[in-house]
Inverse folding.
């Protein structure tokens, strides 16, 4: 129907003409109480905001000379972070002459990724940036 006719019907019922899909062909409008419509829309937004989860990035720092038990402790921390649904940033800092052996850092990162494979997967593989090597792990969807 025409816009003028829809407006006339809305005014006769003391309601408003609200466009729901202005980009559609033809545009979709409804005759509703605009105040009630805005209230219900705000209520839906509050409910959606209450149910949403903010994903944090937690960091686990490793060194080239990390021992077995320290490594397992770091894996346990990463496991806890991934089970909570957070992302994990794994970093290896190179100090002094350690910069001459980035391949050792890569093997540590691969070992860490293998250890955390059950709870998360590699989102961004290990990459050397300045004096540190970074890798990002994300929680698995089913967990």
């Amino acid at each position: 129907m025409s816009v003028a006719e829809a407006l006339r019907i809305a005014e006769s019922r003391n309601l408003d003409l609200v466009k729901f899909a202005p980009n559609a062909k033809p545009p979709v409008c409804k005759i509703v109480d605009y105040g009630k419509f805005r209230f219900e829309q705000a209520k839906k937004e509050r409910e959606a905001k209450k149910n949403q989860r903010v994903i944090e990035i937690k960091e686990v720092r490793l060194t080239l000379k990390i021992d077995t038990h320290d490594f397992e402790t770091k894996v346990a921390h990463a496991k806890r972070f991934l089970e909570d649904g957070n992302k994990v940033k794994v970093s290896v800092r190179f100090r002094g002459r350690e910069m001459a052996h980035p391949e050792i850092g890569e093997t540590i990162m691969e070992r860490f990724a293998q250890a955390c494979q059950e709870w998360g997967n590699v989102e961004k593989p290990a990459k050397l940036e300045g004096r540190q090597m970074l890798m990002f792990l994300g929680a698995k969807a089913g967990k």
About this structure: Helices lie at 3-12, 34-51, 68-83, 102-115.
